[in-house]
Amino acid sequence: MVRGKSLVYGFVIGGVVSAAAALLSTPSSGRDLRFRAREQSGEWKDMISNLKFDGLRLKQQISETSKEGAALIKDLTQEMKKSVQDWQQTVEPHQENIHKYLEQIESSLKDLEEKVKNNQQ
């Protein structure tokens, strides 16, 4: 931020110095010189005012954009949490069924093993 300010100050000061040098080195009458100096100072004031306004507008836009981004991230996080919870609730009954089926399979395997042992004896 400090670099940006010093850059703007450098442009403004350089512009003023170059404008003054150009005005003073031109061969013209005092009246013309004063008139052009007034015109140039008005133009520079307008330009500085516009730069200041644009800078403030840019600062406000960046602030609004960051606030919107934070709100979007918050909303997205909440939606993701809800989706995960919904998925867990959907999967949970199936997990219980799978465990039941696995227990039934184990029981059936044990029964088969016992039958095979009994038949072999």
What does this structure look like?
The protein is an all-alpha fold and 121 residues long. The chain has one domain. 95% of the residues lie in helices and 0% in strands. The protein contains 2 helices and no strands. α1 runs antiparallel to α2. InterPro entries: Desiccation-related_membrane, YtxH. Keywords: Membrane, Transmembrane, Transmembrane helix. This is Gas vesicle protein. The chain crosses the membrane at residues 6-26.
Estimate percent helicity.
over 70%
So what's the overall shape?
rod-shaped
Q: Please identify the structural class as seen in this structure.
A: mainly alpha
Percentage of β-strand residues? under 5%
**Extended strand count:** 0
What does the main sheet amount to?
none
Task: Give the low-confidence spans.
Answer: none
- End-to-end separation in angstroms reads 91 Å
Average predicted confidence as pLDDT: 84
Report the total helices.
2
What is the number of independent domains? 1
- Reading the helices and strands in chain order gives HH
CA-atom Rg in angstroms: 40 Å
Structure summarized in a few sentences:
This protein is mostly helical and 121 residues long.
